[in-house]
Known about the structure:
The protein is an alpha/beta fold.
Amino acid sequence: MYQVAICDDEETEIAKIRRCLSDWQIRHPDYVLEMECFTSVKNLIGLFREGRYAPDVLFLDVYLPEVSGIAVARDIRDMGYKGEIVFITTSQEHALEAFGVNALQYLVKPVETQRLLLVLDTLFVSGRKKRRDCILLRIDGRVCRVSVDDIVYCEAQGKNQCLHLLHDVRQQLHMSMLEIYGMLSDWQEFVRVGVSYIVNLDHVDSLNAQQVCLDNGENIFLPRGAYQPLREQYFHYYCESI
């Protein structure tokens, strides 16, 4: 599933983009787009600042009554937003500024449907692997993009969780284990081990009835009853991967 945000003060323009997104999704039934629309940029920025929202793609008008869309883009980039930004506006005047905030596209209204469909192909089809290989997490007050390949395991530590990454990097997350597992559930290499761990099977060197040996040199001791289901998951994943 991909989260898509549309921010424009004109509801008719939002409706046009929504229709195009819906038409594109009909043509690509394997993709699920979850759309959120904003006529007030304050509401959108508020969600970013609270760390409650970081869509995969943001369609953003440049000429907004409250503040320039370029300024909005700079603001959310400063907050750590790494998603794609597509500007849709009535003038070419701010095109250079748009690419200064790493925008994917700058489209001038009225946007041809075929042009927008091509942009969607670039966003979701051509860039699918890149986006699917990352998750967005709020770390130290910033929304950060984390590569799933870098996640070795996650460990419960009281009310918080500790994310163990490659190169001995550790990040504290103020989330529940269930929330993190839900974010990783699209990748079959992530499995629950007891109630305290989520392990990336790609980083498992070996396992026995007592422990899991990881490729970063760490070992996780298995709780009672965890070995047999983990062994089955490991071999099932390994056989599907070769």
